[in-house]
Specification:
mainly beta
Length: 244
């Protein structure tokens, strides 16, 4: 296990470990491709997962039907899932800011399975991680519990180099802020219901920790008429509204 934080003044009060008698799979490795992308640009990703049985092993395994991908990247859609190179039936749920979940119609064989998840997303921070978690339900005499297991990074697809679950940004020379857009070119905050608010959207890129965001607004003559603190944000696609 690993505990990491970037803020000072924190301490661990309690640690609780849950364990199960047998795993979902004996060997579970995953990798993502591509591993280098343009900051803030929608990219087609392939997440590959390999499940294997160790030779001469009698450890029981149960398999699973759900995959959860935990990431701070923006997920735009999950397009296909292949199991052993065949199209699989599935349903998905996207949790903004946290990742997505894929629920398979058929249970994966815990001894030998190869899964590919094709999805689209945007990466805003260098080194964005994609943590892959398999989940399954087990019924005991008293209750039904959810059992999970994390995949380790590994070279499971020889067609894609990398053997990693982290995505880097392609160029260090890109700006910290880009793709700035406004909702309207004509802003008339006179409460008539037309163009009363100005919406500004933008990408924050490459931040390793939350940073303060400030706005300065000028009139046509170049005179500063407003300066405000918008908040503390992390790398992502963001939007702010000004009421004039």
């Amino acid at each position: 296990f690993r505990v990491r934080w970037n803020e000072p003044g924190l301490k661990i009060e309690t640690m609780v470990f849950e364990h199960t008698n047998w795993p979902l799979a004996q060997v579970m490795q995953a990798e993502i491709s591509p591993t280098i992308v343009d900051a803030g640009r929608e990219t087609e990703f392939v997440l590959s997962l390999q499940v294997q049985q160790l030779e001469d092993s009698n450890v029981p395994t149960s398999g699973f039907r759900q995959l959860r991908v935990l990431t701070a990247a923006e997920i735009n859609g999950i397009d296909r899932v292949l199991v052993k190179d065949r199209e699989a039936l599935f349903k998905t749920r996207i949790d903004p800011g946290e990742g997505f979940t894929v629920e398979l119609w058929d249970r994966l064989d815990p001894s030998a399975s190869f899964v590919e998840v094709f999805f689209r997303g945007r990466v805003f921070a260098d080194g964005t991680a994609f943590r892959v978690q398999a989940l399954d339900e087990r019924t005991t005499p008293t209750e039904t519990e959810v059992v999970y297991q994390f995949a380790q990074p590994g070279d499971v697809d020889p067609r894609s180099p990398g053997a990693t679950l982290a995505v880097r940004l392609s160029s260090r020379n890109d700006p910290l802020v880009d793709d700035i857009n406004s909702s309207t070119r004509v802003f008339t905050p006179n409460k008539d219901g037309v163009n009363d608010y100005l919406l500004v959207s933008y990408n924050l890129l490459r931040l390793t920790q939350p940073a303060p965001v400030l706005f300065e607004i000028f009139d046509l003559a170049g005179k500063k008429i407003q300066r405000g603190f918008a908040g503390t944000d992390q790398s992502s696609r963001l939007a702010r509204i000004w009421d004039g």
